[in-house]
Write a structure and sequence with these properties.
Layout: H1 22-40, H2 44-57, H3 67-76, H4 83-89, H5 99-111, H6 115-124, E1 133-135, H7 136-145, H8 152-159, E2 163-164, E3 167-169, H9 170-178
Antiparallel strand pairs: 1-3, 2-3
Helix pairs in contact: 1-5, 2-5, 6-9, 7-8
Amino acid sequence: MFSSKENSLGAKRAPFSSNTTSSQRVAAQAAKRASSGAFAQLTSSQIQELKEAFALLDKDGDGNIGREDVKTMLTSLNQDASEDSINHMFESINPPINLAAFLTAMGSMLCRISPRNDLLEAFSTFDDTQSGKIPISTMRDALSSMGDRMDPQEVESILRSYTSHGVFYYEKFVDAIAGSKDSN
């Protein structure tokens, strides 16, 4: 029906010798899945943005980008463009990079960005004294008038557990939803 090196869809299988044990095959397949796991966690909008970035970096249109291209891109995205960061990216892939390898590498990098730090930074804009506390009136106003506005019942249910003496303890709130600073 089809050769032993093709699956039912006609795709080539990984070449294994007759001496390869089933545990070696499972380990090889697991390693392949793990490397694409970061890519699988990207949202469709992130994938689209990264495809556009890849196209911008691929100046000659050959479907590949090199180390300098990656450094330029990271710098333009305000990401870590140090030699260590770039070397880390290239530990598992060798330049030049095709689109699939680029998406996997960038997915891995984006997964390391801490949502905890992003949340703390957002809340700190309302914290004039950088004390980890925001006046409850400020939080009520922000949650009911900015972005995706919340109704008063939603605001109170969010603030209730993290409010004491008229202040919202946003660091405790962030710890609850994004993990404590000790877990990062």
